[in-house]
């Protein structure tokens, strides 16, 4: 089976998202990493993006607020291979009305095999990696092929020809 790859560019497209009770944590993390962040393209959902632009003075492509569709907009960018890293400081102690959107966003990040950080420690590990500064060949999983194979097996089972 041929392994497909896709190159994450040297200048990464980094999506930054934070739930309300985690915005200050993300801002502090971004402030600490401003030098490195400035070498990459930043995307963010509504309030988080506005906060980052105002407090850090970095250019940020701002989408809608998460509950208003921003998570889905970022997810679409991930599906189109237009996001290379997802840093999402989520609040594990609160349920949110857009939790299904958050789950879909994380599902897409896994499907596209991009690095994902959901807390400061994992963001620090990803961001301090030498791989952040160079192009990186990420493997693409053949999930569509897997689904086709599963359908073929299911069809065989249904016809009794196992």
Features:
Rossmann fold; 7 strands; 162 residues; alpha/beta; two-stranded antiparallel ribbon; five-stranded parallel β-sheet; single chain; globular
Give me the CATH superfamily.
Methylglyoxal synthase-like domain
Q: How many domains make up the coordinates?
A: 1
End-to-end CA span:
24 Å
Runs in which pLDDT lies below 50 for 5 or more consecutive residues are none
Tally the helices: what do you get?
A: 7
Q: What's the rounded overall pLDDT mean? A: 91
CATH class: Alpha Beta
Q: Tell me about the biggest sheet? A: 5 strands, parallel
CATH topology: Rossmann fold
Number of E strands: 7
Based on CA inertia axes, which overall geometry fits? Answer: globular
> Residue share in helices?
40-55%
């Amino acid at each position: 089976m041929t392994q497909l790859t896709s190159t994450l560019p040297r200048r990464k497209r980094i999506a930054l998202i934070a739930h309300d009770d985690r915005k200050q944590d993300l801002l502090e993390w971004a402030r600490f990493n401003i030098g490195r962040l400035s070498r990459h393209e930043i995307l963010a959902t509504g309030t988080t993006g506005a906060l980052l632009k105002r407090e850090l003075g970095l250019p940020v492509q701002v989408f809608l607020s998460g509950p208003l569709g921003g998570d889905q907009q970022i997810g679409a960018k991930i599906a189109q291979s237009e996001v290379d890293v997802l840093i999402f400081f989520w609040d594990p102690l609160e349920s949110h009305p857009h939790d299904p959107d958050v789950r879909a966003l994380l599902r897409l990040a896994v499907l596209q095999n991009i690095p994902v950080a959901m807390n400061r420690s994992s963001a620090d590990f990803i961001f301090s990696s030498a791989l952040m500064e160079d192009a990186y060949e990420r493997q693409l999983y053949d999930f569509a092929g897997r689904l086709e194979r599963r359908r073929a097996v299911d069809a065989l089972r249904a016809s009794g020809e196992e």
